[in-house]
C-alpha cells in the first residue's frame, strides 16, 4: 500500500491511488471470455447439455489431435459476391479452444474483394497481413471512421470490441490476413445480411424509414441477398 511519511512527520496515505488499486483488483481482467477452471476442456460440441460454452470431453478420450487444427491452412474460395472468404477457426470448428478465450480466422481476398462491414459482439480483433495490400477500417459508436492501408507482410491492425469494421483488397494481387480474437466464439454480425436477409425479415417500413428510401430500393437490396 502506498503509505509515505511527509516532511512534517505525519503519515501521508495516498488514499486515492490505494482505493483505485483496491477497487480494480477484484474486477475481471480485460479478457472477453471467462477464465478456465482447469488446464483444458476440449468442447463436446454435440452435447445436448446447454452451458456457457461446451461441456468437456472426458479426459480419457483426449488426444494430441485435440490441440491441433488445420482448417486455416488452405486458401479460401473467393469466387462469390464479395470476393472474399472468411474461414473461422472458432470453438465450433476447433473444440480444443473451449474455455480458453481465443480464436482465429483466415481471410482470403481477391483483388477488389471485400470482407463486408461486420462486428464481433464478444471480442476485440487483431489481424496481421500475410500478403497483398488491404484497406482496413472501423467505425466508432460516435461515427468516427478510422482506416489505414496495409502494404507489407507482418503489418498489424486492431479492431476494438464490438465495433463495425471491414477489410478490402485494394491491391492488384490476392491478399491474405489472419485475424485473432479474445473469445472462443466472437460472433459475427454482418451488417448487410443482418438487416436485409434476416429470417423473418425486418419489416419494410422499418428499413425504408431507417434508410430514408422507397420500398423499391429496399426490395432491390433484399433481392441481392436472396431474401
Ligand atoms: C475479419 O474482420 C474477421 O472477422 O476475421
Ligand atoms: Mn472481423
From TrEMBL:
Keyword tags: Apoplast, Disulfide bond, Manganese, Metal-binding, Secreted, Signal
Q: Which residues form the Cupin type-1 domain?
A: 70-219
Q: What is this protein called?
A: Germin-like protein
Which family does the UniProt entry place this protein in?
Answer: Belongs to the germin family.
* S-S bonds: 41-56
One GO CC term on file? plasmodesma
Q: Where is the signal peptide?
A: 1-31
The organism encoding this protein is Fraxinus pennsylvanica
Write one Pfam family the protein is assigned to: Cupin_1
Enzymatic reactions: 2 superoxide + 2 H(+) = H2O2 + O2
Q: Its function?
A: May interact with bacterial adhesins thereby protecting the reproductive tissues from microbial attack. Has no oxalate oxidase activity.
The Gene Ontology biological process terms listed for this entry are: plasmodesmata-mediated intercellular transport; regulation of root development
Amino acid at each position: 500500500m502506498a503509505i509515505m511519511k511527509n516532511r512534517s512527520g505525519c503519515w501521508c496515505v495516498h488514499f486515492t491511488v490505494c482505493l483505485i488499486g483496491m477497487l480494480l483488483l477484484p474486477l475481471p481482467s480485460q479478457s472477453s471470455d471467462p477464465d478456465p477452471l482447469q488446464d483444458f476442456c476440449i468442447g463436446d460440441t454435440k452435447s445436448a447439455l446447454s452451458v456457457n460454452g461446451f461441456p468437456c470431453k472426458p479426459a480419457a478420450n483426449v488426444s494430441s489431435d485435440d490441440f491441433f487444427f488445420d482448417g486455416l491452412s488452405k486458401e479460401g474460395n473467393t469466387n462469390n459476391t464479395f470476393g472474399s472468404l472468411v474461414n473461422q477457426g472458432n470453438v465450433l470448428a476447433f473444440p480444443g479452444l473451449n474455455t480458453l478465450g481465443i480464436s482465429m480466422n483466415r481471410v482470403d481476398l481477391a483483388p477488389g474483394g471485400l470482407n463486408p462491414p461486420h462486428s464481433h459482439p464478444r471480442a476485440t480483433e487483431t489481424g496481421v497481413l500475410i500478403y497483398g495490400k488491404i484497406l482496413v477500417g472501423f467505425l466508432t459508436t460516435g461515427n468516427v471512421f478510422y482506416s489505414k492501408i496495409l502494404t507489407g507482410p507482418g503489418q498489424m491492425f486492431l479492431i476494438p470490441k464490438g465495433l463495425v469494421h471491414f477489410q478490402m483488397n485494394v491491391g492488384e494481387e490476392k491478399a491474405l490476413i489472419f485475424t485473432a480474437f479474445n473469445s472462443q466464439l466472437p460472433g459475427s454480425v454482418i451488417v448487410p445480411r443482418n438487416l436485409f436477409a434476416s429470417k423473418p425479415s425486418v419489416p419494410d417500413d422499418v428499413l425504408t424509414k431507417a434508410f430514408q428510401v422507397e420500398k423499391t430500393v429496399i426490395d432491390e437490396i433484399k433481392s441481392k441477398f436472396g431474401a
